[in-house]
Design a protein that fits this description.
Layout (H helix, E strand, L loop, with lengths): L1 E5 L8 E5 L9 E10 L2 H8 L12 E2 L3 E9 L11 E5 L11 E5 L3 E3 L6 H5 L2 H21 L6 E5 L4 H12 L3 E5 L3
Parallel strand pairs: 9-10
Antiparallel strand pairs: 1-2, 1-4, 3-5, 3-7, 5-6, 6-8
């Protein structure tokens, strides 16, 4: 398979596209034929080496945390997926990322892609969507503590970002009125 390999920390000149062996899924893992992968600010931080002390990459490394594709194969013990399922995947920053034709990741990091989304849309949702969801879960605790209820007006600071958009949707879901705060 072809993969975008990062040869060393640094600029984009450290990337090469080369043939590498297609990975095989182990127990509890899913092999995805990647149709689209997303690029996030975290990929830039990893590529430049700013996280090298905390997340050292094995070179050559494949970056990319977000992907959408089709289940090609799965390892022993995986349930809930079938070969051919359209899915999204949340890849760990371990040098075995999504900027390749195929990728392996734990089944717990894979979700089915809704039929009304294409692969490109799906690949943009993973990290932002998970962060938004985690923020919404934290917000639920605060909503309960603050006793926010239907009809209340709630300011969402940073509503233009993916996390803020998730918070706006949650506030709308409970019947409160979100007021979007964005930088001027």
């Amino acid at each position: 398979m072809k993969a975008a390999l990062l040869k060393a920390y640094g600029g984009t000149d450290q990337f090469v596209v080369e043939e590498v062996p297609t990975p095989e899924p182990g127990a509890g893992e899913v092999l995805i034929k990647i149709e689209a992968s997303g690029v996030n600010p975290f990929d830039l931080i990893l590529r430049q080496g700013y996280m090298a002390q905390h997340i050292p990459l094995p070179f050559p490394a494949i970056l990319g945390g977000d992907a959408a594709g089709i289940v090609a194969k799965f390892g022993e013990g995986v349930t809930g997926f079938a070969v051919g399922d359209r899915v999204v995947g949340d890849f760990t920053a371990n040098g075995r990322g999504a900027h390749a034709e195929y990728g392996v990741l734990p089944a717990s990091s894979v979700a089915k892609l809704p039929d009304n989304l294409d692969f490109e849309q799906g690949a943009t949702l993973v990290k932002a969507g998970l962060t938004g969801r985690q923020t919404v879960d934290a917000l639920r605790i605060k909503v309960d503590a603050l006793r926010i209820k239907a009809g209340d007006c709630v300011l969402i600071s940073g509503a233009l970002g993916a996390v803020g958009r998730a918070a706006v949707q949650y506030i709308k879901q409970i019947g409160a009125q979100p007021v979007a705060g964005v930088p001027a």
